Amino acid sequence: MLFAAEELRAFVRAVCAAGGSSAAESAAVAENLVEANLQGHDSHGVGMLPSYIANMKAGQLKVNQHAEVISDRGAIAVIDGKFGYGQVIGAEAMAIGIAKAQKLGMALVALRNAHHLGRIGAWAERCIGAGLVSMHYVNVIGVPARVAPHGGRDARLGTNPVCIGVPGPGGRNIMLDMATSIIAMGKTRVAANKGVPAPPDCLIDAEGRPTTDANVMWREPFGALLPFGTYKGFGLSVACDLLAGALTGGGTVAPHAGRPKGIINHMLSVIIDPAALGDSAGFAQEVERYIAWVTSSRPRGDGTAVMVAGDPERKTRVARSAVGIEIDSRSWAEIIAAGKSVGVDIAAVRAAAPGQRAAAPG
């Protein structure tokens, strides 16, 4: 089933509004989720909406919250998200960090207690839009650990994303945005809902045996994701948990009495103004020269040209904007159910939404 981006945005806005969100908050969530779909990251797209609504109804996600600065020491800001929508809290935290970096040359933003921040690349994109370089380290608490440590068979870690954004020539920005597990948790949801196997060498079952059955992450006895690059990904995941969790004061994934429930993210962001280092024009020229050099390597395998981080997303966005966004039937049924749980008439929303691509069951 194919949907135009604006059709999906309209539905997400309607469901969030029915859940009590303001028009601005509903629009922010819709834009963030659908943008993830457009860029090919369905794991962080509209398929997250059922979890958001379930957490909202359980009191784990608080609507209409805003970032609260609880400590401001020049270039350093500590921010509490008050368990609000990460799409709003993340944007507000980045606005604070960007303003500091533009004034002082750099900023360190310690964000704690935000509900799911979505695609972390969205926040690096905000910094890139202001001409700034940024690094983001993220952990997750409030849900069971999902990733086994290198050499272990039991989950002890979150997927703990790391993201680095660098402005590039003509909008060809470097955007490294990745989980420290081989695949994101949301990709196992997508695979399970589609009824297709997960990629090989990504998962183990409850006994520690390799499997491609994505359902091991969604029904007991639970399996675990594996870290990318064996001990290297494991080490980076540990660093993310300590930087985003321990250093921000939000807490790591280690069990602790009284921990909040839900998909709770903490994020440590370092934002740098290249001009503060003395030669922003020279920096831009060197980035352009470097990208040209790296991507000039002769292709091998299927002959696909070498791409830098961010190229696949830009390519996918062009294609999906033209053709539409595919949603599998099980995921769509879950989205419909989430809407119905807050009283949304999906048929009415779909009828009013512009740019419909294909009929879907309502």
Would you mind describing this structure in some detail?
With 362 residues, the protein is of the alpha+beta class. It has 3 domains: 1-64 and 312-362, Hypothetical Oxidoreductase Yiak, Chain: A, domain 1; 65-181 and 228-295, Malate/L-lactate/L-sulpholactate dehydrogenase, NADPH binding domain (Ribosomal Protein S8, Chain: A, domain 1, 2-Layer Sandwich); 189-226, Hypothetical oxidoreductase yiak, domain 3 (Wheat Germ Agglutinin (Isolectin 2), domain 1, 2-Layer Sandwich), CATH 3.30.60.50. It contains 11 helices and 12 strands. The chain has helices spanning 5-18, 23-38, 49-57, 86-104, 121-129, 185-194, 231-247, 280-295, 311-323, 329-341, 346-352, and strands at residues 2-3, 68-73, 76-80, 106-115, 133-141, 162-166, 174-178, 203-204, 210-211, 224-225, 264-272, 325-326. The strands form 3 sheets. Strands 2-3-4-11-5-6-7 form a 7-stranded mixed sheet, sandwiched between helices. It has a 3-stranded antiparallel sheet with strand order 9-8-10, with no helix packed on it. The chain has a two-stranded antiparallel sheet with strand order 1-12. Helix 1 runs antiparallel to helix 2 (23-38) and helix 3 (49-57) packs parallel to helix 10. The longest helix has 19 residues, at 86-104. It is globular. Residues 358-362 have low confidence and may be disordered.
